[in-house]
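Tokenise the fold.
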Amino acid sequence: MKKMNLSNICRLIACLQLSAISFAVQSQPDSAAKPTRQSLLYLQYHAMNNEVPFLFVQTKNKLENAFLPAAGVPVTIYMDSDVTNSAVVGKLLTDEKGEGRIGIPASFAHTWNQNNQHTFFAHTDSSAGFNTTEKSINVSIAKLRLDTAAGESGRTLVATLVKKENGSWLPVPNVDLKISVKRLGGNLNVSENETYTTDSIGKATAAFQLDKLPGDASGNLEAVAFIDDNDEVGTLQTSLIIPWGKPTVYKCQFGERSLWATGTRAPVWLMLMAYGCIIAVWSVIIYLVTRIRLISILGREKK
């Protein structure tokens, strides 16, 4: 009887433990099994060479500590108002990288020139891979110019930043920008300084310290002034062709002997080495075959 009571007590304790474990698993929040998703929307204003500006959009999802691009997200962009259909700049669908861009149409030219500043609104609708998100930026109409000058240290580049205000163009001080030379793999700084700051008259001066830098056939280089996502003027970039490079004349070497040539265009020493190796290998093979044949003949004569 005591044994049966002890057995029942053990079974009861085991059942209670299993029930507690099951209740703890069921009471865990869904976020533990499935991480929460935070949808992020980025909106940037770009103007290249003081031409028609465009808007750059990027959509991402934050899952735990990772940022993943959200593709196929429809985005609607408004200018100066996000409630009227007449303020719609356009609609776009982000690509596989979660990026998209759209230019300001010509129908907004009158509204664009009427004000000194504009506010852009971006809206996304809720979808299976992205939540409802909105973003707005406020930018001033500005221009970035690049010119050359002769300074005490030699050749210099001068970038000038101005913004539109009350029908005139005023300098914009205390804005960081980069002055570099465009190359195939990216931009190369013209001096040891990575960035420059505009002064009270909106100018930033950089000494050109790249001597004997290869250019085109005439020695021309493409200098670039770049402002990256400024809170007031957005992203601006302008370029200027300068004749401060070393002329580079391309010489076609097609048909000449080289390591990357094929057939009879390979170097003579490489062909001699290859043919020598082939002759040596076949000579050894022929020698071994003749020795084996001779051994066979001598064996038959001995018998």
